[in-house]
Amino acid sequence: MQTAQLLVGLDVGGTKTAALLADARGNTLAQAVVATYTATPDELLGTISRAIRTVLAEVHATPRQIQSIGMGVPGQVDPATGIVQLAVNLNLQRYPLGPAISARFKTPTFLENDVRTAAIGAFNHLRQTEPVQSIAYVSIGTGLAAGMILNGRLHRGHNGMAGEIGHMIVEPGGVRCNCGQYGCLETFVAGPAIVRQLIAAVPEMQNTIRNAGDVYAAAVQGNAAAQAVVQRVGQHLSRAIQWLVMMYDVEKIVIGGGVARSGDAFLDPIRQELAQLRQHSPLAAELLREEKLHLMPPDYNPGLWGAVQLAMGGGR
Ligand SMILES: [Zn+2]
Q1: Mean pLDDT for the chain?
Q2: If you ran DSSP here, which 8-state letter would residue 119 be given?
């Protein structure tokens, strides 16, 4: 491994940063997760450097062996310049993150928004088994957003934010969202929103429900209030899926993110809602088939593999 042929993929998050080191064929050589520090841009650079050095150390490699670096960043980025326009969770505004990492490791660095990066990863994962061309990757975690791959290419939109469905208003005058609007889809279906709805209905569960996974577990165990919440989440998400299909006519809707890890408990309410739509409408029966939905397997990390793809020159 003397020549520069290693690829580094990074998923830079507000609380932790994950790195994956791959060879030119796409085999995993090492993985690491480090805590993210964001008080200053220098601290963030330190975090990213630590993640990269950790995976290099695992295979006794040096920075000179890196061919290129790909990075998914939670916010608005300009892939052409490597500038992060705005990433609230990373405390960055108009910051040249790509050039800064390039200078530190003396290697090309490619940036993209994190959900769009994961969409590239999900697309490549699917392509290993079927020749899909257009997908929507829906990520449900602390927030909700979709990444669109249309006709084999990432669809970024004018500001690189195409697919920000979490901030579509579904209940005017509803709960205030982090974005400042009221009644966004995200205020119903993102992880914190799912927890909030159950605790609002049953305040005494406050100490036992920590995350959306707990809400889904309670629903499986027969808790009626939790069942009502996950049913409502299923209604909202099935509608969002219907919008995405009607707007973009994609072949697959791929679902990932922390909330989706609840598996069938998460997916069943969505499946039920879509089945009802199909029952009453030939249009829905044609366009919203059961096989349209694809849950990302928990052992595949689309954010990291999408970042490796960015490093390889994918998504451009
Ligand atoms: Zn919003």
Answers
A1: 95
A2: H
Q: How far is CA 12 from CA 94, 117, 146, in A?
A: 17, 11, 18
Q: How far apart are the first and last CA of the chain?
A: 27
What are 109-123's pLDDT values in tens digits?
Answer: 999 999 999 999 999
Sign of CA dihedral 96, 101, 104, 107: negative
**Token representation of residue 114:** 């994190």
Compute, in angstroms, the gap from residue 90 CA to the centroid of ligand 1: 18
Cα 139 from Cα 146, distance rounded (Å) = 6
Q: What domains appear along the chain, each with residue ranges and CATH number?
A: 6-107 (3.30.420.40), 119-295 (3.30.420.40)
Helix, strand, coil tally for the chain in percent (to 5): 45, 25, 30
pLDDT at residue 314, rounded to an integer: 59
User: How far does residue 145's CA lie from ligand 1's centre (Å)?
Assistant: 11
For residue 146, the cross-strand partners are: 138
CA of 165 relative to ligand 1 center, distance in Å:
9
- Each residue of 226-247: pLDDT tens digit? 999 999 999 999 999 999 999 9
**DSSP state letter for 200:** H
β-pair partners for 93: 86
| Of 194, 212, 191, residue with least CA distance to 142 | 191
Q: Which of 236, 138, 238, 242 has its CA nearest to residue 187?
A: 236
- CA–centroid distance, 177 to ligand 1, in Å, is 5
26 pLDDT higher than 60: yes
